[in-house]
Protein backbone atom coordinates (compact mmCIF):
# COMPACT_ATOMS: atom_id res chain seq x y z
CA UNK A 1 0.00 0.00 0.00
CA UNK A 2 1.32 3.47 -0.79
CA UNK A 3 2.41 5.88 1.90
CA UNK A 4 -0.53 8.28 2.16
CA UNK A 5 1.79 11.03 3.39
CA UNK A 6 3.81 10.90 0.18
CA UNK A 7 2.32 11.97 -3.14
CA UNK A 8 3.59 10.66 -6.45
CA UNK A 9 5.68 13.82 -7.09
CA UNK A 10 7.19 13.43 -3.61
CA UNK A 11 7.92 9.75 -4.15
CA UNK A 12 9.46 10.39 -7.57
CA UNK A 13 11.49 13.30 -6.23
CA UNK A 14 12.98 11.17 -3.45
CA UNK A 15 13.59 8.22 -5.80
CA UNK A 16 15.32 10.43 -8.36
CA UNK A 17 17.47 12.01 -5.64
CA UNK A 18 18.55 8.55 -4.44
CA UNK A 19 19.22 7.42 -8.01
CA UNK A 20 21.40 10.49 -8.61
CA UNK A 21 23.22 10.08 -5.27
CA UNK A 22 24.08 6.49 -6.10
CA UNK A 23 25.05 7.17 -9.71
CA UNK A 24 22.40 4.73 -10.95
CA UNK A 25 20.62 4.76 -14.30
CA UNK A 26 17.06 6.05 -13.85
CA UNK A 27 15.76 3.86 -16.69
CA UNK A 28 17.09 0.76 -14.91
CA UNK A 29 15.55 1.71 -11.56
CA UNK A 30 12.24 2.94 -12.98
CA UNK A 31 11.84 -0.09 -15.25
CA UNK A 32 8.75 0.66 -17.36
CA UNK A 33 7.97 -3.00 -18.15
CA UNK A 34 8.14 -4.02 -14.46
CA UNK A 35 6.03 -1.05 -13.41
CA UNK A 36 3.49 -1.95 -16.08
CA UNK A 37 3.20 -5.49 -14.73
CA UNK A 38 2.92 -4.26 -11.13
CA UNK A 39 0.29 -1.61 -11.85
CA UNK A 40 -1.57 -3.12 -14.83
CA UNK A 41 -1.03 0.24 -16.55
CA UNK A 42 -0.07 0.57 -20.19
CA UNK A 43 3.63 1.42 -20.69
CA UNK A 44 2.71 4.60 -22.60
CA UNK A 45 0.58 5.73 -19.66
CA UNK A 46 3.45 5.09 -17.22
CA UNK A 47 5.87 7.09 -19.36
CA UNK A 48 3.42 9.99 -19.44
CA UNK A 49 2.93 9.93 -15.67
CA UNK A 50 6.70 9.72 -15.04
CA UNK A 51 7.17 12.69 -17.38
CA UNK A 52 4.83 14.69 -15.16
CA UNK A 53 1.85 14.64 -17.49
CA UNK A 54 -0.41 13.04 -14.87
CA UNK A 55 -2.97 10.39 -15.56
CA UNK A 56 -4.96 12.73 -17.74
CA UNK A 57 -8.43 14.08 -17.32
CA UNK A 58 -11.63 12.68 -18.65
CA UNK A 59 -14.88 14.18 -19.84
CA UNK A 60 -16.77 11.24 -18.34
CA UNK A 61 -18.01 11.01 -14.76
CA UNK A 62 -15.80 9.60 -12.02
CA UNK A 63 -17.93 6.45 -11.99
CA UNK A 64 -17.42 5.94 -15.73
CA UNK A 65 -13.69 6.61 -15.37
CA UNK A 66 -13.41 3.94 -12.67
CA UNK A 67 -15.37 1.43 -14.79
CA UNK A 68 -13.03 2.08 -17.72
CA UNK A 69 -9.97 1.57 -15.51
CA UNK A 70 -11.42 -1.71 -14.19
CA UNK A 71 -12.19 -3.00 -17.70
CA UNK A 72 -8.77 -2.01 -19.12
CA UNK A 73 -6.82 -3.45 -16.21
CA UNK A 74 -8.79 -6.69 -16.17
CA UNK A 75 -7.80 -7.23 -19.80
CA UNK A 76 -4.12 -6.68 -18.91
CA UNK A 77 -4.35 -8.84 -15.77
CA UNK A 78 -5.80 -11.70 -17.79
CA UNK A 79 -3.10 -11.46 -20.47
CA UNK A 80 -0.42 -11.50 -17.77
CA UNK A 81 -2.14 -14.49 -16.10
CA UNK A 82 -2.13 -16.47 -19.35
CA UNK A 83 1.55 -15.69 -19.99
CA UNK A 84 2.65 -16.46 -16.42
CA UNK A 85 0.78 -19.79 -16.34
CA UNK A 86 1.45 -20.67 -19.99
CA UNK A 87 -2.13 -21.64 -20.62
CA UNK A 88 -4.55 -21.00 -23.44
CA UNK A 89 -7.33 -18.43 -23.43
CA UNK A 90 -10.08 -21.10 -23.00
CA UNK A 91 -8.19 -22.82 -20.16
CA UNK A 92 -7.91 -19.51 -18.35
CA UNK A 93 -11.61 -18.80 -18.88
CA UNK A 94 -12.56 -22.16 -17.38
CA UNK A 95 -10.35 -21.56 -14.33
CA UNK A 96 -11.66 -18.03 -13.84
CA UNK A 97 -15.33 -19.01 -14.25
CA UNK A 98 -14.91 -21.85 -11.73
CA UNK A 99 -13.18 -19.58 -9.22
CA UNK A 100 -15.85 -16.85 -9.46
CA UNK A 101 -18.78 -19.23 -9.81
CA UNK A 102 -19.93 -17.60 -13.06
CA UNK A 103 -20.54 -18.81 -16.58
CA UNK A 104 -17.67 -19.04 -19.04
CA UNK A 105 -19.50 -16.57 -21.29
CA UNK A 106 -19.62 -13.98 -18.48
CA UNK A 107 -15.94 -14.63 -17.61
CA UNK A 108 -15.02 -14.12 -21.27
CA UNK A 109 -16.86 -10.78 -21.36
CA UNK A 110 -15.03 -9.64 -18.22
CA UNK A 111 -11.54 -10.41 -19.51
CA UNK A 112 -12.27 -8.88 -22.91
CA UNK A 113 -13.31 -5.62 -21.23
CA UNK A 114 -16.93 -5.84 -22.39
CA UNK A 115 -18.41 -6.01 -18.87
CA UNK A 116 -17.62 -4.56 -15.46
CA UNK A 117 -17.57 -6.99 -12.52
CA UNK A 118 -19.62 -6.50 -9.37
CA UNK A 119 -17.78 -5.34 -6.25
CA UNK A 120 -17.86 -8.89 -4.86
CA UNK A 121 -16.40 -10.33 -8.04
CA UNK A 122 -13.79 -7.56 -8.16
CA UNK A 123 -12.47 -8.73 -4.79
CA UNK A 124 -12.34 -12.33 -6.06
CA UNK A 125 -10.62 -11.16 -9.26
CA UNK A 126 -7.95 -9.37 -7.21
CA UNK A 127 -7.33 -12.61 -5.30
CA UNK A 128 -7.35 -14.68 -8.50
CA UNK A 129 -4.78 -12.42 -10.20
CA UNK A 130 -2.82 -11.89 -6.94
CA UNK A 131 -3.02 -8.10 -7.08
CA UNK A 132 -4.15 -5.43 -4.64
CA UNK A 133 -7.83 -4.61 -5.08
CA UNK A 134 -6.94 -0.94 -5.63
CA UNK A 135 -4.87 -1.93 -8.66
CA UNK A 136 -8.10 -2.09 -10.65
CA UNK A 137 -9.64 1.17 -9.44
CA UNK A 138 -6.89 3.67 -8.55
CA UNK A 139 -5.88 6.47 -10.88
CA UNK A 140 -2.61 5.96 -12.74
CA UNK A 141 -0.85 8.34 -10.34
CA UNK A 142 -2.13 6.47 -7.27
CA UNK A 143 -1.31 3.07 -8.73
CA UNK A 144 2.18 4.10 -9.78
CA UNK A 145 2.82 5.74 -6.40
CA UNK A 146 1.87 2.50 -4.64
CA UNK A 147 4.14 0.46 -6.91
CA UNK A 148 7.09 2.80 -6.29
CA UNK A 149 6.89 2.66 -2.48
CA UNK A 150 8.70 -0.73 -2.11
CA UNK A 151 11.38 0.46 -4.54
CA UNK A 152 11.86 3.65 -2.51
CA UNK A 153 12.11 1.66 0.73
CA UNK A 154 14.63 -0.69 -0.88
CA UNK A 155 16.83 2.16 -2.09
CA UNK A 156 16.64 3.80 1.33
CA UNK A 157 17.60 0.63 3.17
CA UNK A 158 20.29 -0.32 0.65
CA UNK A 159 22.14 2.83 1.70
CA UNK A 160 24.56 1.85 4.48
CA UNK A 161 24.86 5.42 5.78
CA UNK A 162 21.08 5.93 6.00
CA UNK A 163 20.69 2.52 7.64
CA UNK A 164 23.39 3.22 10.24
CA UNK A 165 22.17 6.75 10.93
CA UNK A 166 18.64 5.47 11.47
CA UNK A 167 19.84 2.58 13.64
CA UNK A 168 21.75 4.95 15.93
CA UNK A 169 19.17 7.75 16.09
CA UNK A 170 21.09 10.12 13.83
CA UNK A 171 18.66 10.17 10.90
CA UNK A 172 18.22 13.96 11.04
CA UNK A 173 21.69 14.53 9.60
CA UNK A 174 21.65 15.13 5.85
CA UNK A 175 24.40 13.68 3.65
CA UNK A 176 22.76 14.40 0.29
CA UNK A 177 25.21 15.34 -2.38
CA UNK A 178 27.92 13.15 -0.93
CA UNK A 179 29.48 11.02 -3.68
CA UNK A 180 28.62 7.27 -3.52
CA UNK A 181 32.23 6.24 -2.79
CA UNK A 182 32.43 8.77 0.05
CA UNK A 183 29.11 7.49 1.44
CA UNK A 184 30.54 3.95 1.45
CA UNK A 185 33.71 5.20 3.14
CA UNK A 186 31.65 7.07 5.76
CA UNK A 187 29.58 3.94 6.40
CA UNK A 188 32.82 2.00 7.00
CA UNK A 189 34.08 4.63 9.43
CA UNK A 190 30.77 4.72 11.33
CA UNK A 191 30.73 0.92 11.57
CA UNK A 192 34.33 0.82 12.80
CA UNK A 193 33.68 3.52 15.44
CA UNK A 194 30.43 1.96 16.67
CA UNK A 195 31.63 -1.67 16.78
CA UNK A 196 32.45 -2.89 20.27
CA UNK A 197 36.15 -3.45 20.84
CA UNK A 198 37.32 -7.05 20.97
UniProtKB/TrEMBL annotation:
Q: Entry's SUPFAM superfamilies? A: lambda repressor-like DNA-binding domains
State any single GO MF term.
Answer: DNA binding
**InterPro entries for the chain:** Lambda_DNA-bd_dom_sf
Name of the protein described by the UniProt record: Uncharacterized protein
Amino acid sequence: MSDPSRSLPGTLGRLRALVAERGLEEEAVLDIAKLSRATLLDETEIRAVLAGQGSGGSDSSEEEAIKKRVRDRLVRAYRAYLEANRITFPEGIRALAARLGISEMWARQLVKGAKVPSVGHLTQLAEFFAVDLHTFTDTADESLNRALQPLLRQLQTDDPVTELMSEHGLSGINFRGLAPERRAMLAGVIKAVLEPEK
